[in-house]
Design goal:
The chain is built from 4 helices and 2 strands; from the N terminus they run H-E-E-H-H-H. It is mostly helical and about 120 residues long. A hairpin with a 6-residue loop joins strand 1 (about 25-30) and strand 2 (about 35-40). The longest helix has about 35 residues, at about 65-100.
């Protein structure tokens, strides 16, 4: 994955450096409410606006994903609750199986009985 990122980032980096090298002309930047202007190279202005656009887009995407993150948190909570329920039920089942397996069957009980002699008088 890192290799793919590097492979995709390389042309972007080369393009940005090439743009910066070829566009060194100074342009005046004036912020409307203020009267003073600043002279900056064109690549600084262009890349600055690109960076601001990227940051604003990231913020909008993050805000729009709020509902998905909220649902994911709720699902994680529900999964933890269900896992605890499963563990409790498995524990109860194990205890029940132990109780059942400790009981002898009826046939075993009959075998353990000693025979009783018939003491009745026959006629």
């Amino acid at each position: 994955m890192a290799f793919l990122r590097g492979l995709l980032a390389l042309p972007l980096i080369i393009g940005t450096v090439a743009f910066a090298i070829t566009h060194t002309t100074k342009v005046p930047v004036t912020l409307n409410p203020f009267e003073s202007s600043i002279e900056l190279p064109l690549y600084v202005v262009a890349l600055g606006f690109l960076a601001v656009g990227f940051i604003l887009g990231s913020i909008v995407a993050w805000i729009s994903m709020h509902k998905v993150r909220k649902e994911k948190r709720a699902q994680k909570k529900e999964i933890k609750k269900l896992e605890k329920d499963i563990e409790k039920l498995e524990s109860d089942l194990t205890k029940t199986n132990v109780k059942i397996s400790n009981k002898k069957s009826f046939k075993d009980d009959v075998k353990d009985l000693t025979p009783i002699e018939d003491t009745r008088k026959s006629s």
